[in-house]
Design goal:
299 residues; alpha+beta; Pseudouridine synthase; Archaeosine Trna-guanine Transglycosylase, Chain: A, domain 4; 3 domains; 6-stranded mixed beta sheet; 20 strands
């Protein structure tokens, strides 16, 4: 079995829990996930099976989309409502205009400090391991990009927003920062990841569905091929010879390759196809060397 599962993670499970559970259900050891999702959150988490785990790195930098609920007035040490309440203020004077104005501040490239309750590693330990012992570690801000924030609903003290953002964005921290700017504090009271790269929530499968299809020996029903998934994030390049002949080489001059029409060629990864339109791997263009070098072969 190999491919990718677009899984709808339920609240209450960690990403590690999901992987461990699917190992038992699918009876396969080689499984990895494409992006941690908070235990209390639900939504899309791509699960890579078998040889497809070798392609995880190509999906690491994919952008994400979320729907989050912000509750104004209460601040927790975890940034969500699963932690210890730190402070409570009256948010009743916050208007929808105030809220919209603060949202605009966070659109674009910004710096964000990772929360203490996160899986970021410092000195070999995850931050949440320090946090659980009451230790606060100095964290450097990281650059992230929030491409768009849409206000879906505002009914003080709660608001729902839709966020399109880059990898590494902490929605809990965004909610806390919004509350701080409004002067009343806030926390994330609900989070749904609706998209991770090419994987959409409306095309995802629940754990129960995967169990049922596995019992019926219909694993292929929920597995996405690696080729199809890569097509959602990388551009295509065709080599002018067969796969067998191509594999005898490692680097190919750009002038020998066929790229998609009107495509701006740049330093990036590309899906490799042979002259017979057979997918066989991923290559990386190096403009300074005017060539494409094979990166990983999937055969």
């Amino acid at each position: 079995m190999e491919g990718i599962i677009n899984l709808l993670k339920p609240p209450g499970m960690t990403s590690h829990d999901v992987v461990a559970y699917l190992r038992r259900v699918l009876k396969i050891k080689r499984i990895g996930h494409g992006g941690t999702l908070d235990p209390g959150a639900c939504g899309v988490i791509p699960i890579f099976i078998g040889k497809a785990t070798r392609a995880l790195e190509y999906f690491e930098n994919c952008d994400k989309e979320y729907i989050a609920e912000i509750t104004l007035g209460k601040t927790y040490d975890t940034g969500d409502n699963f932690g210890t309440l730190l402070e409570e203020k009256d948010p009743s004077n916050v208007t929808i205009e105030d809220f919209k104005r603060v949202l605009l501040k966070y659109v674009g490239e910004i710096e964000q400090v990772p929360p203490m309750f996160s899986a970021v590693k410092i000195q070999g330990k995850k931050l949440y391991e320090y946090a659980r012992k009451g230790i606060v570690i100095d964290r450097k801000p990281r650059k992230i990009n929030i491409y768009n924030i849409t206000l879906l609903d505002f009914n003080n003290p709660k608001a729902r927003i839709k966020i399109h953002c880059s990898k590494g964005t902490y929605i809990r921290t965004l909610c806390e920062d919004i509350g701080r700017d409004l002067g009343c504090g806030a926390h994330m009271s609900l989070l749904i990841r609706t998209r991770s790269g090419p994987f959409l929530i409306e095309e995802s499968f629940t754990i129960r569905e995967i169990e049922e299809y596995s019992e019926l020996n219909r694993n292929g029903y929920f597995l996405i091929t690696l080729e199809k998934a890569l097509q959602g994030i990388l551009k295509k390049v065709v080599l002018p010879y067969t796969k067998e002949k191509a594999l005898k080489r490692n680097t190919i001059p750009l002038k020998e390759l066929f790229f998609e029409k009107n495509l701006e060629i740049k330093d990036d990864y590309y899906i490799l196809y042979d002259a017979n339109n057979n997918f066989f791997g991923v290559g990386k263009v190096e403009i300074k060397n005017n060539s494409l070098k094979f990166h990983k072969i999937f055969i």
